[in-house]
Design goal:
The chain is α+β, with helices and mostly antiparallel strands and about 240 residues long. It has 2 domains: about 110 residues, Jelly Rolls; about 90 residues, Orthogonal Bundle (Arc Repressor Mutant, subunit A), CATH 1.10.10. Helix content is about 40%, strand content about 20%. It contains 8 helices and 11 strands. Strands 1-8-3-6 form a 4-stranded antiparallel beta sheet. The two termini are about 25 Å apart. The relative contact order is 0.15.
């Protein structure tokens, strides 16, 4: 594994200098193991730490007034977790480990130092944060405006494309590692409805499942069904500050 998962993630976009690599590695000097199902942060907790995910998967969510759960984001190794918590002193969302995971906690002062000393990294983090925001906006727009099948198709493609950012070995299949209830909580459907849509896509030859692994047989068709745009590629980085 790279000295810094976060550096590996950012390095997929631009070459990083030795100084930038060392600065990013400092964010991962402390590692903490968390078990599957462990709550890392609860909504409205005082924010004391931000995180880089080094191993496993984590998701963010909120509990709605009716007691239902809305899953906001699934995070993968190399992701910066807690960007929303940089804006407030109280956490705007909860974080839970989906797998046995390793997170690297650091405080806002460490982030400030990184942004002050390395403006190119700061600009790239701004780009990726906005790409993620737009991806979430796409999902928000689809809720209540597109079919159940479209929502599930777009969600599967988004997970697939996000995993491919840092894993070049992924071609057409991936380990989903999400229950149908969790997918439903992300796209506003019941688990029964999610199951029905997945079985329908299987019957149409669009996807197949085996031991929790999803294979996408017709990515273009799934994209058409889900009205999906890959927000994790074709980023405009031409305006980033020059390397010092």
């Amino acid at each position: 594994m790279a000295a810094s998962c976060f550096a590996d993630r950012l390095g997929k976009q631009i070459p990083l200098s030795d100084a930038e690599l060392k600065a990013l590695a400092r964010l991962e000097e402390t590692q903490r193991k968390v078990r599957k199902g462990a709550i890392i942060q609860r909504v409205n907790d005082t924010v004391t730490e931000l995180y880089v995910l080094r191993h496993g998967r984590v998701m963010s969510y909120v509990i709605l007034p009716d007691g239902s759960r809305q899953i906001l984001r699934v995070y993968f190794p190399g992701d910066f977790i807690g960007a929303a918590s940089t804006v407030y002193s109280k956490a705007p969302e909860s974080l839970v480990a989906l797998d046995d995971s390793v997170i690297c906690p650091f405080d806002k002062h460490a982030l400030r130092r990184l942004l002050e000393e390395h403006p190119r990294v700061a600009a790239l983090m701004f780009v990726l944060s906005n790409a993620e925001r737009i991806s979430l906006t796409d999902r928000l727009a689809s809720l209540g405006r597109t079919s159940a099948k479209a929502r599930v198709a777009a969600f599967l493609l988004d997970i697939f494309d996000r995993m491919r950012v840092t894993n070049d070995e992924i071609t057409d299949s991936f380990d989903l590692k999400l229950t149908q209830e969790e997918i439903g909580d992300a796209v506003g459907l019941t688990s029964v409805h999610v199951n029905r849509m997945i079985r329908q896509m299987e019957q149409e030859g669009l996807i197949s499942r085996s031991n929790g692994r999803i294979t996408l047989h017709d990515i273009d068709r799934l994209g058409d069904i889900g009205h999906y745009t890959n927000r994790h590629k074709d980023l405009d980085l031409s305006w980033l500050p020059a390397l010092n």
